[in-house]
Task: structure prediction
Amino acid sequence: MPDFSYSIALTANQLDSRPLANWKYRRLPYRAAVTIMQRGTGVSVRQTIDAGAQNVQQKSPVHAGGVAGTQPIPQTTPVLQFIAEPFDEIIISNDEVGGLTPTVDGYINVEPL
Result:
């Protein structure tokens, strides 16, 4: 049951920040239920989430609030859940679109099925 937490400061107008780029389980070794939570310190971050050939979430705003460096929890952050197949690569791509410098805090969990 791999978990991964991250906190990434984005630069103004930064595109395609990929927090899972160096995570060992971004390419799944088994079929899994995937849970993702992301929260930004501002309202100018857009997320795109893919799993293999499946586009799970098309460019959408990231929930704002919280303090930089704190892990999001389900009580205060929208939870995205989906099923991914073996060898799917999970890609989270964040774009900063407002010329600001927000921090994105996130959490991902994969549960084998």
Q: What stands out?
A: The chain has a mean pLDDT of 95.
